[in-house]
Amino acid sequence: MRHTINVLVENEPGVLARVAGLFSGRGFNIESLSVAETLDPMASVMTIVTRGDDQILEQITKQLNKLVCVIKVTDLVGKEYVARELILVRVTVKPETRAEILSITDIFRGKVVDVSPKSYTIEVTGDEEKIKAFIELLKPMGIKDVARTGSVALVRG
């Protein structure tokens, strides 16, 4: 089962390495990781996406809570939450595909953030399924490069 975990941590050097080391040292895979400072510059929030059954997640949560730098661990599974990713895609542009690429971008509420004679760089935000669908539609056009953030998530309400 896929789990999204928010970890509130102290904003200090080495915290990311300690959290990542906890996962790798116990054989847990991190599928996605996003870290950013909160409104309080003394704290950061890590959004971690991983896979495992409930027993594995319980073990991860207990191990995270043992770290001195961890303030709070929240498993978002079973809660109502909003999750988003951002992707930048550089796609090859030919005269015959230019209009179709712009149309696909518009449908996905993306925006062209850079233009060159031979390519467009497009920005799209959304959930994982939306990002996957966007990539699949652009593949036949000739994707040159992709940069993708990890998932960020907040509990609703």
Report on the structure:
By secondary structure, the chain is of the alpha+beta class. Helices cover 29% and strands 43% of the residues. The protein is built from four helices and nine strands. Strands 5, 6, 7, 8 and 9 form a five-stranded antiparallel beta sheet that branches. Strands 2-3-1-4 form a four-stranded antiparallel beta sheet, with helices on one face. β2 (30-37) and β3 (43-51) form a beta hairpin. The longest helix has 13 residues, at 54-66. The mean pLDDT is 93.
Key features of this structure:
about 160 residues, alpha+beta, 5-stranded antiparallel beta sheet, 4-stranded antiparallel beta sheet, 4 helices, 9 strands, elongated
Summed up:
This protein has helices spanning 15-25, 54-66, 98-107, 128-138; strands at 2-10, 30-37, 43-51, 70-75, 81-92, 111-115, 119-126, 143-148, 152-155.
Count of alpha and pi helical runs: 4
The value of Rg in angstroms is: 19 Å
Overall number of strands: 9
The ordered H/E elements are EHEEHEEHEEHEE
Largest sheet, in brief, is: 5 strands, antiparallel
The span between the termini is 24 Å
- Quick one: overall form? elongated
Judged by helices, strands and strand pairing, the structural class is alpha+beta
Beta content comes to: 35-45%
Helix content: 25-40%
Low-confidence stretches: none
Overall pLDDT: 93
